[in-house]
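Ticket #431: bound-state structure for 2-acetamido-2-deoxy-beta-D-glucopyranose.
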Amino acid sequence: MRIKYTIPIVFFVALVIIEKENKIISRVSDKLTLKQTPQTPLQPSGFSHLLQKHVSVPSLSKDFMLMKRRLENYSVHKKVKKMGRKHILLLATTRTGSSFVGEFFNQQGGKMFYVFEPLWHVEKMLTLETGGTNATAAAKAYRDVLQQLFLCDFSLLESFIDPLPVDHITTALFRRESSSSLCEESVCSPVIKGVFERYHCKTRRCGPLNLTMASASCLQKEHKVIKSVRVRQLENLRPLAEDPRLDIKFIQLVRDPRAVLASRMVAFAAKYKNWKEWAMVGDVPIDDDEVKKLKGNCDNIRLSAEVGLRQPPWLRGRYMLVRYEDIARFPMRKATEMYKFSGIPFTPQVKSWILKNTRASKETSGVYSTQKNSSEQVEKWRFSLPFKVAQVVQRVCGPTLKLFGYKIVSSEKMLKDKSISLIEDKVFNFL
Ligand SMILES: *[C@@H]1O[C@H](CO)[C@@H](O)[C@H](O)[C@H]1NC(C)=O
Ligand SMILES: *[C@@H]1O[C@H](CO)[C@@H](O)[C@H](O)[C@H]1NC(C)=O
Ligand SMILES: *[C@@H]1O[C@H](CO)[C@@H](O)[C@H](O)[C@H]1NC(C)=O
Ligand SMILES: *[C@@H]1O[C@H](CO)[C@@H](O)[C@H](O)[C@H]1NC(C)=O
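RESOLUTION: The complex was predicted; output attached.
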């Protein structure tokens, strides 16, 4: 053999031996088989194939380096898995109890890095004069920011914070205090006199947030959880599921859209003036922008859930659907399920927080007819939402209601009839 081939080949063989020892080769082959696309020309039998086909050394070493990098990437992936580092994205829409469910994870403390609504900044920055955002541009920005944050990199998020952080220091991170990770000792810089921080820590006195410190703290944590009500389509997040550096799982939180609307009509009364008037005159214009928006929201939620429940290969074992109504009625049971799915230990600390903040204690003791009682709480909206409005929601969100197991009401009488629950028992099969 000519000397110029010897060095790369010896190197190559050495690598093969080393990697074989690690029992990686066969799995890499599996991985490459799965990933065979025009961009990945390497065949599963890549080794002999390479040696036969590539005669010129530069080409061999190029492919070889590519292979080596892939192996390295794969090793990183393996390491991530082995170390049990989990990345959880809690996806929801407003008024679905997502802050509350976020607390299930935020309360873990210790090994958890929890971030509350980081995409608020992105949405705000990308809001157009018309009030909306360019959905395509927003989706891409959301995805990229989330991906970086799961890797503890705040730089892209920084570029969306207004005013722009100086030396990675910001006084403006949205709801900093809602992420206990951002108020820990290790992320708490000394208070600076005269500097006002709108979303300051409540648990301890801290100066403005130093994102370099936040990133360092994030890197020390085992698990990362991000909550967001801004992602519209789960499909857009596919690159995160396929990122070998992440072990991501998605929990989608949904709620009866009629209840969401009822809740929004109370919480944002001014914005929903039209709906109230329509209900009064008994006529809701079906082509109104508000109605279209409602339909758009319902469709997005349903389409995301359909993708999740269909379990395409990239999402297999990585998607869970949870209904607000089930969490409200059986908080401990649902929290247990969510933790089991996430692969993160369900700590006594979290359990006690749930006990303190829900009626879960009665759920387990069975002394009260809690299910009935909580069901009443959960379905209270039925007495505030005008039937006419409920009808409109049913008309535009019909398939969404059906998918999640929410019963359609056919009359005012049925809407207000406490003896009929509108929540069907439903088990969503996620692996
Ligand atoms: C390895 O991972 C990095 C970071 O994700 C990526 O940029 C690079 O393209 C990957 N290399 C290969 C050969 O897949
Ligand atoms: C939205 O953003 C994309 C990419 O940034 C751009 O190509 C497209 O023209 C924009 N659409 C509108 C309606 O502005
Ligand atoms: C922010 O934190 C980093 C890391 O601890 C430190 O090096 C840097 O000086 C801090 N920045 C400021 C402005 O204090
Ligand atoms: C339901 O539970 C709440 C709080 O535990 C209680 O105040 C209320 O009276 C109960 N309602 C019924 C109908 O039992």
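RESOLUTION NOTES: The CA atoms of residues 177 and 201 lie 5 Å apart.
TICKET STATUS: resolved
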